[in-house]
Structures are given as C-alpha cells and as structure tokens.
C-alpha cells in the first residue's frame, strides 16, 4: 500500500521511514481521546468568494453538522481524525494542518474541512478549474498528485500561482487521500511559517497520516 501510494501520488519518501511513522500513529490512535470539532470560526470571503479575507472572521461559526449527520458513528470517526491532526502536530510542529473530504455539497463537488489545527480558514473549496488555477488544495484533488512547495516566495517569483490565506506561510504540502481502489477522496493540507520545513521525516509523517485517514472518513 505504501509503495502504491507513493507511485500514484508521485511522492518521494522512503517506505521504511513511512512504515515507522504508521506504527507510531497506530499506537497513538489506540489510546487517543480527542474530541471532534463540530463548529469552528471561518474567515469572511472576498469579492466573488474566490479568496479569504485574512484576519476578518464571520460572526456565525461554520456548523459541520449542516453538512454531515451528527450521529454516534460520525462522532467516533471525527474523533479519530482529530487525533490524527494532533499526532501530526506533535510529530512535526507544523503551523497549520487540516483534513478535507471530497463531498457533494450544495449541488457541486467540494472539499469539506473535517478536522484541523491552526488559524481559522475557509471550510469549503469548490472542486473546479477556476479554483484549480490558484489553489493547491484543488490542484491536488483534481490531479491526485502531491504538491510540495518548500519556498513559497520563490515559487511565486518563478511565476507559480498561489492562493494566499495566511501571509506568514512560507511552505506548504498538499497530499491526496486515496481509498482502497486508489480513487482520490480528499486531501490533507500542511503549512509552515518557515522555508524548507517539509523534510523527509516530516513528509513521512504526512504520508502515514494519509494512509490512516481514509479509514475514518465520515459517511
């Protein structure tokens, strides 16, 4: 599964390193007691809804229960996802990390943020070509390939398009979530306030998370 995931997503990390992180994560999940986050603050959206206004929050929180049934099964699944978020944070000290699932919402396919740690951010990303032009999240879910940018200012200077949410972010990784049939069912997004943050060790933690997350996606 690890080798197949790396080949499919074009992610270069040593399999043995990932195996050790998967074992750590499984041990962590066996005793974790994390609580799901059913509502969270989100930023105001800019003109046309294409970007977030960083530092400007909407008065009303986003209710995940409006998009996913709040039942015992999903409560348990989201608890596991939040535990994975905490594991990634503890292992890497990343500044922002989130888990998104592809779901049909409001008449279109969107990425829905299920669990995260960090500054408030938008809860939904429409999966379409318009957003793919600047959003690493959407590029990742549509291509089913990893996106690793360890120097965002240089990436932009070289002509790369980039959706800026938090101007402090200097490095970002988006990895696809693949189900048992290797179909893309979502992504993870990790952001750091320093360049060259995503070393092989940190990337191995993120891949390990991807391999376990798909077991806990809500229905």
TrEMBL record:
Gene3D superfamilies: 3.30.450.40. It comes from the Bacteria. InterPro entries: GAF-like_dom_sf. This is Histidine kinase.
């Amino acid at each position: 599964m690890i080798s197949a995931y790396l080949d499919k997503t074009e992610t270069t990390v040593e399999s043995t390193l990932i195996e050790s992180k998967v074992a750590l994560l499984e041990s962590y999940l066996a005793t974790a007691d994390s609580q799901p986050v059913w509502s969270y603050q989100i930023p105001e959206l800019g003109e046309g809804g294409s970007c977030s206004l960083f530092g400007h929050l909407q008065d009303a929180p986003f209710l995940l229960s409006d998009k996913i049934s709040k039942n015992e099964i999903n409560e348990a699944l989201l608890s596991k996802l939040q535990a994975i978020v905490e594991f990634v944070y503890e292992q890497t000290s990343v500044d922002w990390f989130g888990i998104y699932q592809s779901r049909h919402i409001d008449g279109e396919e969107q990425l829905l943020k299920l669990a995260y740690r960090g500054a408030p951010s938008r809860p939904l990303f429409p999966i379409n070509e318009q957003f793919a032009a600047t959003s690493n999240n959407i590029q990742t879910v549509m291509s089913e390939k990893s996106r690793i940018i360890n120097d965002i200012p240089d990436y932009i200077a070289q002509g790369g398009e980039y959706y800026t949410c938090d101007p402090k972010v200097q490095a970002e990784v988006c990895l696809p979530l693949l189900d048992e049939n290797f179909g893309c069912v979502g992504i993870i997004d990790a952001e750091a306030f320093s360049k060259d943050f995503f070393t092989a060790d940190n990337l191995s933690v993120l891949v390990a998370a991807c391999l376990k997350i798909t077991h806990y996606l809500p229905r």
